[in-house]
Amino acid sequence: MFMKIEGIDGESQDSKHKNEIDVLAWSWGVSQSGLRHVGGGGGAGKANFQDLSFTKFIDKSTPDLMLHCASGKHIDKATLTARTNDPRLEEYLVITLKDVFVSSYRTGADDGAGRAKDHISLRYADYIQQVFTFDPAGDVTGEFEVFWNVPTNTGGGNNLVTNTAPTITAVPDQTTTEDGPAVTVNFTISDAETPAGALILGRSSAVPSLVPNENIVFGGSGTSRSATITPAPDQFGSTDIILTVSDGSMSASTSFTLDVIAGNDPPSIGSVGTQVTGQGVPLDVAVPLDDVDDDPAGLVLTATSSNQALLPDPNITIPAAGNPRVVTLNPLPGAFGEATVTLTAQDDGGLTSPPVDFLLIVNASGGGGGFDSITVNGQPGEVPIVLAENSPSGTPLGILETVPPDPGAGFSLLDDAGGRFAIESAPGASPQLVVADGSRLDFEANPDHTVIVEARNPATGAVRTEILSMQLTNVNEPPLITVPPGFGTAPPNRLWDLGGIAINDPDAGLNRILATFGVSNGQLHVRNSLLPGATITGDGTATVVITSTVANLNNLLSTFGGLTYRSDPAFSGTETVTITTDDQGHTGPGGPLTHAASSTLEIELTPFEEWRLLNFLGSELDDLSISGFSADADNDGLPNGGEYGLGTGPKDPADGPGAIEIGFVDVGGVSYPAIVFPRRISDPSLTITTELATNLLNWSSGPAFTVEDSVTPIDGDFDRPVIRSFWDVPSNATQQMRLHFSLDTP
């Protein structure tokens, strides 16, 4: 509760009522002097308006109020505000007095230990009272005002705001099929005070994987609205759809169930590459199948050929089951050329897959208008070509020739393995196969590739196509360190997390690599529990050496507090953190490879700012494992006492943290969470502000500090400052108190 008196300041730190007077208690009343007798007669008399009286602690307003009472000096206006005692802090009553003077002032204390209190009475000419009403959600539903002029004994009242919730009609339950048509529902909205076009619609789905919220699209205008709901592809099940309408203050909703009946999805066939064989030589082709509804091994697979003279349909043999399905192609003896084979799969429900085509090339024999083979450096095409991963672009792999040799033959790639390989044909030189893009030759990603080479003599019509195999050999690749641009600014002699470092080594696998971390003006600390099986030397010194797997190293580096730094007490300035890795030769030829990186950390004594969060659960107020000094209420690896402890001189880097107490203070029979500092904290440049929340929702700013009776604020002269919550803790919820410690630059 707050009292604002024009020309007289109080000490309230509330963001909405700063420098007003904090009110502990207040009272006011009105009586009627009229008479009512038995029988006829009687009537209303003059209303007797009492002085408005309030109680407060002695503060900076005390001298002014006493002088106004003694002198009878008039005040233009005084305003009393009362608000709810819940997290929303809604203002439900405002009393405004005009043409005011202080009719009474008295002060006193209950006992020697108590803080003295003032008791003030105000007399006035005009009285205005505003009452606000709210629904359970905290929305304003009405504002009512009464006013009275005391000298003339006249007044009245108004219903200034009466807001009713909008309405929305019910929607019946809906049904559709998987991958079927969208569902459109129609509904009507209205509001007694707000035009329908100004109302706000909202929507939500209880199962977003079935119906994402963005798949609910509104249509219509005015009072007639619609919602079109489109389930996600290949999903079925049931979800509740909630439609809401709001006037900006109050809302209404309707819900209905949408059932999406499982449907039959068509099967699919994976890609099949170009196939090459010789005249009359059967060829087995593995065809991958898929069906989201059934076992793909039971699909009915059919195949047709575009060239019946080369590959008649009856010469395509397909087993009845299996996945992948191994299809046998039997070209006619003596025939050569090309045929496109079209595959189609069908499920038990009669749905068919999109057709998949692949090319079959049947080479002619040397005596039948073709070449016998294609060689690479004299080796037949079926011999794999071996090359190192990451071979430089342009690396020659072999000269291409036909058997029998034909100087008029030209070579081309029908499949270049995604641009990895090419054919170079310089004038006067034999054509050769080369690496086109060595950066894409990654052994760890795929050690095997194929290309399809065609040899053709346009003059004679001789042609031959062959598939060549490429095998990559592994080569040791260097580790790679990534670091952030900087690790921030830390106070001296305090543990600081070195987050943002990552190490990558594509071929180390489960082998252990060597990582060295070094600083010049402090010590490094490692959380050993995050490095099972590792060898660690130098923990707590300026150089830490860790031998571990890459996975465990990254687990350490990505965990808050895994690798920390503490500066020397007297150091301030720029600290450089260096990291060096050595893969110790893992894995592949080439010997050990290393990489180094560095980043910086600024060490400054002042200023510093930080948030600290403390959780209180009402049902566990006395559980020291949660609220005790050694507990870790916010699960960040730091105990309560270490997080909130401040020494006697926060600017002194040699001063360690002082123990604090997590406790509660009782105000009016209600317990409030509190942090009690057992030492004097008298640095005027240190301030602590608070924010409060329940279940991490609706953070609300509180005063810079709240002190209880004789306990002093942060910059006071006594020993035990207390910072407490200004909400009581509900028994079924968790309250958070977030403290912001700020030390200004001296």
Plain-language structure description:
The protein is mainly beta and 746 residues long. The protein has six domains: 2-157, Pnp Oxidase, Chain A, CATH 2.30.110; 167-261, Immunoglobulin-like (Sandwich); 268-363, Sandwich (Immunoglobulin-like); 373-473, Cadherins (Immunoglobulin-like); 480-604, Sandwich (Immunoglobulin-like), CATH 2.60.40; 621-743, Immunoglobulin-like, CATH 2.60.40. The protein has four helices and 56 strands. Strands 1, 2, 3, 6, 7, 8, 9, 10, 11 and 12 form a ten-stranded antiparallel β-sheet that branches. The longest helix has 10 residues, at 62-71. It is elongated, with a radius of gyration of 42 Å. Mean pLDDT is 80; it is low at 35-42, 606-621, 641-661, 678-686, 695-721 and 742-746.
The CATH superfamily name of the largest domain is: Hcp1-like
What's the end-to-end separation, in Å?
37 Å
Using the 3D structure, state the CATH architecture of the largest domain: Roll
- Helix tally equals 4
